Amino acid sequence: MTTFQHLDIPTLAGWLDERRELALVDIRDPQSFAQGHIPGSRRLDNDTVGAFIEEASRESALVVVCYHGHSSQQAADWLAGQGFAEVYSLDGGFIDWQLRHPARVEP
Questions:
Q1: What residue numbers bound the domain in which 82 lies?
Q2: How is 32-64 classified by DSSP, letter by letter?
Q3: Which of these, 40, 59, 72, 103, is most buried using a 10 Å CB contact count?
Q4: One of 12, 27, 65, 66 is an active-site residue; which one?
Q5: Pick from 51, 45, 54: nearest CA to 84
Q6: What pTM was estimated for this model as a whole?
Q7: Cβ pair 94, 28 in contact under 8 A
Q8: What is the total count of domains within the chain?
Q9: Is 19 strand, coil or helix?
Q10: Which residues pair with 97 in a beta bridge?
Q11: For this structure, is 66 an active site residue?
């Protein structure tokens, strides 16, 4: 059973434009995240996920970002299992976001 949904880049861009309430988590390695990430995202790894789960809203949308949209699916599935109601994996990942929205990348 799939517990997360797929999200495309145009939809996420629209949500960010609308300032929709959502949590944006990036599971790429620290160096890649430091070189560029989607504005408003926070890096999530095994060391920080516990604190994130404790403080994050279970009600607002949760979008998981990786490099190409593959490993984010496993992370999104796991996070959905932690009680988050609305979990998405970003199709195409950060690489696709960066190609389509180079001006919307934060160093």
A1: 5-104
A2: HHHH-B-TT-EE--TTTHHHHHHHS-SSSEEEE
A3: 72
A4: 66
A5: 54
A6: 0.96
A7: yes
A8: 1
A9: coil
A10: none
A11: yes
| CA dist., res. 22 & res. 87, Å (int) | 10
- Are 52 and 25 in contact by the 8 Å Cβ rule? The answer is yes
| CA–CA distance, 6 with 10 (Å, rounded to integer) | 12
CATH of the domain at 45: 3.40.250.10
Whole-angstrom distance, CA of residue 12 vs CA of residue 88 = 10
- 44 closest CA partner among 53, 7, 35: 53
Cα 6–Cα 10–Cα 16 angle in degrees, nearest 5? 95
By the 10 Å C-beta count (0-12 exposed, 13-18 middle, 19+ buried), 76 is classed as buried
Q: pLDDT tens digits for the chain (107 residues)?
A: 669 999 999 999 999 999 999 999 999 999 999 999 999 999 999 999 999 999 999 999 999 999 999 999 999 999 999 999 999 999 999 999 999 999 999 98
DSSP helix/strand/coil, 94: helix
